[in-house]
Write a structure and sequence with these properties.
The protein is mainly alpha-helical and about 150 residues long. The protein has seven helices and no strands. This is GatB/YqeY domain-containing protein.
Length: about 150
């Protein structure tokens, strides 16, 4: 079952349960998935579907962070939206898994004593391995810690 079908089924269930906030979030996600498919002029792959979900999560987090401190209503709405969106997000890699990948890349490149100069080579090799499964900022931070 594609994400579009899954989101549509969840949206119908939310409408039946009269859960307006969940229905609106799912409707927004469904629209984003359909728009991406229309732009591509073909069905989306699982990776592309996950990319759309992650983009929606990122935008919602940015909205929550940029909301004025006195607008708790906006922040609460974003929290609820994130809870729904994260149901459809792919599982993220843990820090331990990312560290294991970093160590695998270091050994593959033959780097025994990593230094700051090696960061570019490591990142170039590492990012395709973790793309879509790990947050780029977290990966960058972990590589930076390891290469000091």
């Amino acid at each position: 079952m594609s994400k579009i079908e899954e989101v549509r089924a969840q949206m119908v269930a939310a409408m039946k349960n009269k859960d307006k906030e969940r229905k609106e979030t799912l409707s927004m996600l469904l629209a984003a998935l359909k728009n991406k498919a229309i732009d591509k002029r073909a069905d989306l792959t699982e990776a592309e579907e996950n990319e759309v979900v992650k983009k929606e999560i990122k935008q919602t987090r940015e909205t929550m962070e940029l909301a004025p401190a006195d607008r708790e209503d906006i922040k609460e709405e974003c929290r609820k939206r994130l809870a729904v969106l994260e149901e459809f997000a792919p599982e993220e890699m843990s820090e331990e898994q990312i560290r294991a990948e970093i160590n695998a890349v270091l050994s593959a490149l033959g780097i025994t004593e990593p230094s700051g100069k090696d960061k570019g080579k490591v990142m170039k090799e590492l990012m395709p391995r973790v793309k879509g499964r790990a947050d780029g900022a977290l990966v960058n931070r972990l590589v930076g810690e390891l290469l000091k």
